[in-house]
Amino acid sequence: MGQGKLKIISIGLLSGGLDSILAVKVIQEQGIEVIGLVFETPFFSAQNAIKASEELGIRHIVKDITPEHLAMLKNPKYGFGANMNPCIDCHALMVREAGKIMEEEEYHFIFTGEVVNERPMSQNKKALKLVANLSGYQDFLLRPLSARLLPETKAEKYGLIDRRRLLNIQGRSRKLQLQLVKKFGIKEFPTPGGGCLLTDPIFSKKLKELFENTEDYSIRDIELLKSGRHFRIQGKKVIIGRNKEENQKLKEMATVKDVVLSAEHVPGPIALICDTVSKRIIKKAAGICARFSDAKNEKKLPVIYRLGKKNEEITPEAITQETMDELRINPEAKGPKKDT
Fold first, then answer.
1. Cα dihedral angle (85, 89, 92, 94), rounded to 10 degrees?
2. I want to staple 240 with a disulfide (CB 3.0 to 4.6 A). Which of 4, 229, 306, 339 is the partner?
3. Dist. CA 243–CA 248, nearest whole Å
4. pLDDT band at 121 (very low <50, low <70, confident <90, very high)
């Protein structure tokens, strides 16, 4: 290949999934050093990728791209998939971030584990080309598992890597990938899918409702979507814990501006009102809290609420199931009805 003594260093987008692991192996097989680039946001964790990099024995970089990702999520150029997943724009953002590191560190090329037509909407040839062009690093982006089905990159043209030893995998079948698992002696890998919350229909509907009702949302607002039953009363978000772990999490995430409620003397949930609110909203939220307690049939169950460092007792407003359904942010419906 005429590499001489030149040390070739690549940077690979590592999700921790099987395809990204195999892509690393295919690159390493040609004697090229791999640096794993691991991304994290509130919607996906770096945990699996970090574990994979350790098992692969490669150095990894963890990069939190939350601000850039949220900015993109507000208005993705190529829209969303089935839920709130802007896959083309998201992948392009990741490649762009990888390209910046590549230039700063003087690495030679970028690669991913993408496979032609494995995902019909986001990994067809047109979508892969869009990702490459949108990233701005199309000449440096290699997909080793499907490279022989795609145009040559600079790394191949300049002999940094042997195109003949790259692969031509396509489609949704995992047969060839599983053959590579045996070849490379890979012992453990996660099952496909489930890594990004934006592909989850229930979470996506909660997120969309947040975007529609909150102009200045925070990272905490997004983290709170992962726990509890969600309601909106006069524009204010109310979250009811579903178990002991969620109750504890809601307590820990509460700020001095929030209102925290709990039914007195009976097992029941914690309710978190995200913001300082009127007594009327507190009474209605207390009614919902009481409805989910073990004493839900009592007419006047006292509820304690905390605002800042002050605790007070309040008698909940009587809440019917119909009213509660109207106030609930129902993932199966278009959204809660307005509270009058």
1. -50
2. 229
3. 9
4. confident
pLDDT attached to residue 167? 98
Would you say residue 68 has pLDDT above 70? yes
What Cα–Cα distance (Å) separates residue 149 from each residue in 18, 107, 124, 125, 153? 20, 24, 11, 9, 12
Which amino acid does the sequence have at 62?
A: V
Decide: residue 324, CB within 10 A, 0-12 exposed, 13-18 middle, 19+ buried: middle
Q: Report residue 35: phi and psi, to 5°.
A: -105, 125
Predicted confidence (pLDDT) at residue 335 exceeds the cutoff of 80: no
Which amino acid would we find at residue 336?
Answer: P
Q: Which domains does the chain have, with CATH numbers?
A: 9-193 (3.40.50.620), 200-327 (no CATH)
Neighbours of 64 (CB within 10 A): 13
Global confidence as pTM: 0.88
Supply φ then ψ for residue 111, to 5 degrees: -145, 160
The helix (run of H) or strand (run of E) holding residue 103 is: helix 87-105
Q: Which two tokens stand for residue 119?
A: 């995902």
